[in-house]
Amino acid sequence: MWFIIGLIIGFSALGLFWLFKNKKFNLTWYEWMIGIIGLSLLFFTIQNFFGSLAEFEPKAAYMFLLVTGLPAVILLAISWQLVTRRIKAKS
Amino acid sequence: MNSFHSMVSRRDFMKGLGIAGAGFGSAAVIPRVFHDMDEVIGSPQGVHPKNPWWVKERDFLNPTTEIDWARMQRFEGGKYNPMGSLTLENQQKINAETSASRKKALLENAPGKTLRDFSLNMSAVGYATTGPWIWGPYVKRAGVKGYFLGEQDSIMTPEMLGVPRWEGTPEENARMMRSVFQFMGASEVSFGQIIEDSTKKLINLSTSDYGPDMRIVFEDVNKAYVVDDNRPPPLTTGKMVIPNRCKSVIVFKIRQSQEMTKKGNGFIARAGSNKAYDQLAITNYRVKAFLNGIGYEAMSGGTYGITCARPGWGTLFGLGELARTQQLIAPTEGPVMRSTAIMITDLPLPVTNPIDAGTNKFCHTCLKCAQICPSGAIYMGKDPDFIQTPLDHTGGVTGYPADQLKPELFNNSPAYKRWPLNHFACRSYWAINGASDNWCIGACVFNKFDDSTVHTLVKGVVGTTSVFNSFFTNMDQAFGYAHQPEEDWDNWWDEEHAVTSMPFTNY
After folding, report:
1. How far apart are CA B98 and CA B59, in angstroms?
2. What pLDDT band is residue B127 in, cutting at 50, 70 and 90?
3. Taking the CB of residue B36, how many other CB atoms lie within 10 A of it?
4. Is the confidence at residue B131, as pLDDT, over 60?
5. Chain A positions with Cβ closer than 8 Å to B
6. Which letter, b or e, does each residue of B98-137 get, where b requires 16 or more Cβ atoms within 10 Å of its Cβ?
7. Which of B262, B333, B336, B452 would best serve as a mutation to test chain A binding (most A beta carbons within 10 A)?
């Protein structure tokens, strides 16, 4: 699982780097912050979801989806919306 | 802890900086520097159990459980009888009811209580209905000598081989014994000592396995020996002799299946603990044979052993801390172990210090185990104290309440600060249930391993501060950490079981 998460992080970082370099893309400090917190929370959720299932604790697994997974998705959505709306407003 | 020079270990150094806790794992790879050969030989590395960073080491014989050694007395293990508070007539009635409730469950094919569950339970420890206190085929057949001293007659000793016995420094011996024990089925070891007026009092006067007339005595002799009249237990009469010169004690722990623990009660849940009991006997005789093979004495028991203070030895010498349930909670597997046990030897060994992982403190406010216990056996008071189970705390669910408890029958010593356990109440539930249960261990906040990273985070915080203890108890309940639903217990029969993770999940 960590190998797959590592691959996702690697490709995401590569994609971001490509956007920065070729599309003159930039992020404000708070977009960075919200995005990083959201992504960390998402990975925390994924790890604990599968970890809880391995521990014979299915209810705890689904609680992780709700308690940490949902805020993670919301934070990532906020970060994405902030960026797209800022770019739209500029153009 | 013995060492030739005063050294700051890498771990202590990191703790001192205060950054180990922050998880700067990369800093922890700083290699340790030895300045001379004395330091190499005297290295304490590998002597103390390998604990996570949040576990603090305490001073020698100063565990998180306060002990009044002056009041401590050696226990008559041979008289251990959790049902002894009842009249003999009522004990017989309960035994009859236990058989009846077992038969009823088997006929109803109740989850976890089918015939195959019962057979799994029996075969895991190799016992059926004969002799409730003699566990496992090895303990049954070895006799008192085999039980106490191991396979002495069939082991090639250095004398027979014409070679000198193995010699090593205490630290080398400690590392060697950790490897041996872990190879033979134990999950971790620590090292203690027989000390007059303190730890010596934790050795029983007799064993639960062989009854009150098979005495455990210390004598000024060179070799350990057994006097045995060969009568069946609990009538066996004689003595098991520990030479006074044998001071080293190896404390080891045997895990039990986490999965079975999660099944609450029923025969299938008991199969997990029974298998670990058998492993206890197996590890005991294997390691005694190893020590004889390198030229040293080794004395221990089989299943119940020569001490009833098994969590006590673990608490005193750094395997964990005493819990509200009177069990040991280890920093890694919590209470998911069947037992800590001890082996006395003349092999020179160092001593390890007690630890503080914040778990004993956590038990002050958690109470999850006490709330789930169906028999009310677990003390509900907040703080531990120098007390016995109150005489009017008859508890129990048998319908045959004791007029007055006899805590002395289950070593309810008031010589250490703890939450007293009502063994009568606990045992009474087993009687009506037809099998022992895992409700308390299965409910414990610390019964999780580290599959989920959140547990490492929680344990780290608990080991550092007690401020969030109540919050973590509430979160544990809110997230629904609990036993498996009863209807899922029998899924085990159709599932794949990972063989590669055997040492982790099975013991």
Report:
1. 47
2. low
3. 10
4. no
5. 44, 47-48, 51-52, 54-57, 59-60, 63-64, 67
6. beebbeebbeeebbbbbeebbebbbebbbbeeeeebbbbe
7. B452
Determine the average pLDDT of the residues in B378-383: 91
Q: Does B479 touch chain A (CB under 8 A)?
A: yes
CB–CB contact B482 A59 (8 Å): yes
Distances (CA, A) of B362 to A50, B328, B354, B365: 27, 13, 17, 6
CB contact under 8 A, A60 and B449: no
pLDDT for B11 beyond 60: no
Indicate yes or no: CB of B452 within 8 angstroms of CB of A55: yes
Measured between alpha carbons, how far is residue B110 from residues B118, B290, B375, B398, B440 in Å?
Answer: 11, 44, 21, 21, 21
Contact status, residue B207 vs residue B78, Cβ threshold 8 Å: yes
Of B259, B453, B480, the CB nearest to A63: B480
**Model pTM?**
0.87
* Tokens found for residue B403: 């007029």
Amino acid at B299: M
Give the integer Cα–Cα distance in Å for B369 and B376: 10
Smallest CA–CA separation between B320 and chain A, in Å?
Answer: 22
CB contact under 8 A, B479 and A59: yes
Q: Which residue in B451, B430, B495, B422 sits closest to B260, CA to CA? A: B495
Q: Give the 3-state secondary structure of residue B211.
A: strand
